[in-house]
Amino acid sequence: MTSASIGKAGRVGTARLDAGRMPAPPPVPERRPFLGPILREPLLQFLLAGGLLVLAARTHGGAVDRRPIVVDPARAAQIDAEASARAAAYARALAEPERRYPVARQDRGAGS
Amino acid sequence: LTAGPAPLAYLWSGIEHILTRFDHLSFVLGLVLLVGFGPRLLAVILAFTLAHSITLAAAALGLIRIDPPLVEAMVAMSVLFLAVELVRSHWGHPGLTSSWPWLIAFAFGLLHGFAFAGPLADVGLPRDAIPLSLFLFNLGVVIGQLIFVGAVWLVFAALRRAVPRPFPPVAEFARIAPPYVLGSLAAFWLLGRLPPIFA
Question: Do A42 and B184 touch (CB under 8 A)?
């Protein structure tokens, strides 16, 4: 065995020792978590679901939280009276033909 | 404090109030899911009852007053908190609630007591029988709670009998679904109750 081959054998021996190990993988760029970990938070999941429920309730015209509405009786009576007065005035207006067809009456008068 | 209905009517009023309020019932259900049907449930229910009795009496007698919309929002928040704790505990991250459930039941029970005081204030308390009426209303709330816990136990027992060995994914779903339903509902309530606070 020449000195050169001994030198090579030393290298080969080193290579044999390294052969059992896997070569280190090339560095992979780390994936930055975007929404995943946040979306795994139960609180956020619930808030999202609750928000969707609120949206659905509003879209379908339902009240978000049905609770008895406390009405001031005096204010309710006032609103009622105002509405009745408006309805009566409208009914009177409809009953008077000259108010319903003022232009037609003028035309008739002008023609005769 | 005004003259109101006969004291015995307060008992029924208490039962009716708790059984028609899904937010309170959701909290009780959350406690049941957390501790199961064992001796711990008794301690938790006792802590909750003691706490809401204290604040109900204080609020009904006018000693403490909190804005009702704020109380309603905080009740929803208590259910949300419990649902989050249930889910975390399910995934192997038990928190304070799992270690000391009675403490959480007591703390949030104080809040629920303020909410119970609302309907009692609407009805009023008879001048000549304030302690008795208050006691009967509170007793009604406790009876309502026990009726609900009994109903939940019956449903669980019936399910166990009907499906003794559920398919594992189904069993897993059955364990995790109730906290998710509770949490979503609680968030829905909370989001709906926040605007009146700032109105």
Answer: no
